[in-house]
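User: These chains co-purify. Model them together.
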Amino acid sequence: MSYKFTKEEAAGLFAKLSEKFDIYAPIRFKDAGRYAETDIIKYGKISSFDEGVYNEKSTYPMKEVLSPIQQALFYFTEDEYRESKCSTKPMLVFARPCDINAMKVQAKIYAGNGGFIDMYYERMRERVHYALLECNADDDTCFCVSMGTNTTDDYDAAFRFTDDAILIDAKDSAFEALVKDGKACDFKPEFVKENITKVTLPVIEDKETLNKLKAHPMWEQFNGRCISCGACTIACSTCTCFTTRDIIYGDNQEVGERRRVSASCQVDGFTTVAGGGSYRKTAGDKMRFKMLHKFHDYKARFKDSDMCVGCGRCINRCPELISITETLKKMNAALEEIKKEK
Amino acid sequence: MFNPIQPKPCKILSVKHETELEYTFRVEYDIKPDHGQFLQLSIPMIGEAPISVSEQGDGWLEFTIRNVGKVTSCIFEKKAGDVLFLRGPYGNGWPTEELKGKNVVVIAGGTGVSPVRSLLNYLYKTPGYAKSVNVIAGFKNEQSILFKNDLENWKKSFNATFCLDNEEKEGFRKGMVTTVIKELPLKDWGEDYAVIVVGPPVMMKFVGLELLKCGFDEKKIWMSFERKMSCAVGKCGHCRIDEVYVCLDGPVFPYTTAKNLVD
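Assistant: Joint model of the two components:
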């Protein structure tokens, strides 16, 4: 069933939802952007609907709610250590279909790979309920339709924020109980049907083709263009990689924590072992590693999907204007070449 | 909820100085790993490092650690009675079933002898498990020779050749381990053999090429990989190559897989 709340009723609705949920949404940080007078929009806990940004693509993905850029794993004191704690209150997270689909991709790694379930991820995932936001396919970097991530049914309720009302389509019965005071309406969420940008996914038939594609000169162009800053992987909806760091608090050598920090396969040191040995030393090698993970390796391991939801944030964030969709075109062209050589 | 990265404080029982840079730590631990598996060793407020098990006994494991990083240099300050934090074991270990009744070849270089030590000592203590055991172990120089007592035992029971890269010493051959491979009696073995290789990446590459050149079947060769690891449970992504996670699917790979794993 669908319900409508007027602007005046919004505060009351928020209060009611807050009793059950911690509510997360994209929040605007004014003038915090990379350039003068630009903002960033990133996820955080909100205390009123007005704080959320619902009609614009967030700069950073929703994944940060479930797997923060950094989090404490263990706290160390003199002669003991303890696991970090976490609230058990359910979370209501406003998210678009691409971001919700990205969580399915991440879960394959965090909550399954090798039979190990990451406790820190799982305890967050157990709390999460999604409030679907419709998407207006903001810009020409989006290609969710090509990735099949433009729709989802993994949400408790869909929301539409208009100038004078909030429209809610409650899919989950427990959620419906919270919003049934609203006026009945016929709102149904709409999904993106077409993007300006469309991609053709590369088909890599066998290991021989894969290794030929790895050796293809197309990757060398990134040696001059990519600065290996890792902005693409931090902005990525699906990237999961992290590093573990132990830190000491201030001057006290006896107290500290073991912390998980987001890591990037694009940044030097990602593969460096004790003693200094490392793999994939050039920017081109690193780009190749990332692209093949997104569009071959992940699917080869987990079967269901590629490791990209077409959110386009990596394109938005790259300071060198490198585009994942253009790189896909180059991969397809290289694969055509390899096929002809056979 | 079970936390797979929760370490456990464990008491160091003894510390043996093998070389200036390599010490063997015997640590109290209840779980018995497979030969070739590794654990995550850590010191709170310093960090974690993946270290392979070099020997095991009732209620203890040994780790032979090379002092090359931040974590290992802190471990080197520890003495018997001190505490190390452990979790694991992880990874797949050596294919011990594939070695049963076979002519087993073990080729190891430098600190790479550590991850095959417990296996070789098991074969030493279990005569008849393998048809024959052939060890080729190489060290850089006299100062870097590890496990002198074990080497003595292996020399007695196995067909063993020990090499020093560029030094003369009695009982050792001067030169690389690769030069010994062609002397193995492959013709007498027919199809009945298995080869395991571990060492620095360059050494493994050239050992692989030499084995193939000498007629060894790539399906009967296994190699152990070393990669950066942060979690050891398939989450952090550091050790991934293609669709393979070295911490989960390795560190031991059949050569048929290993040769296609291009970083």
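The longest helix of chain B spans residues 201-213.
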